[in-house]
Amino acid sequence: TSRVYMDFAFNYDDWKDFGDFLNKIKINAEVRPSTFDTHDIGFFAPKTAGMDNLLSFQCKVLGPVNELKINDLNAYLGENTHLTGNLSLQNITDFFNADIQEKLEKNEINLADIQQFKLPNGKTIALPDFLKNLGTATADIAYDGIISQKFKAVADVNTAAGQLSANIDATPHVGDDGVDYMADVQSSGINIRKLFPKAKLF
Length: 202
Fold this sequence. Notes:
Elements: E1 3-11, H1 21-24, E2 26-37, E3 54-63, E4 67-77, E5 81-90, E6 99-110, H2 111-115, E7 136-146, E8 150-159, E9 162-172, E10 179-190, H3 192-195
Antiparallel strand pairs: 1-2, 2-3, 3-4, 4-5, 5-6, 6-7, 7-8, 8-9, 9-10
């Protein structure tokens, strides 16, 4: 259940705009520390049904739902994930075709929390098994693109296994759930043993 505490206003030109709330009603809000259940989005956007996640957050929100800007975000997810930064969300009510831009800095990310994050229809984010060994990482992250079409992510990550910088381009397949990734990865040092503790390296 969401509990949101904020000062807000709806800006619009005519009462008729409420007939197209997602696109014509502009939100201007300053959100104080609150909790938000992403399941509640489903009441306004049925395509997001199954996103059952509880977030604690505060931020500033500007724009209509389908052209939303979230600034000064300070959010907590799961047990050990803390996100700060700014996001721009275009067409978010059609999640897999949403155009998302984000810049998140000085984050603490626990991969177990990310794996448990629910997408529409209850789907989760699949991560390679070896990443579970990294525990909680600190990261600066930038993302730009449409999940179902093509997107780019840039990350500078520090983990228990070492430091890693990555530029990732991803292109989902048409007709199946596959994704093609192209990555440029650099590191100042990685402890392979922490990533693959049971592997025989030599």
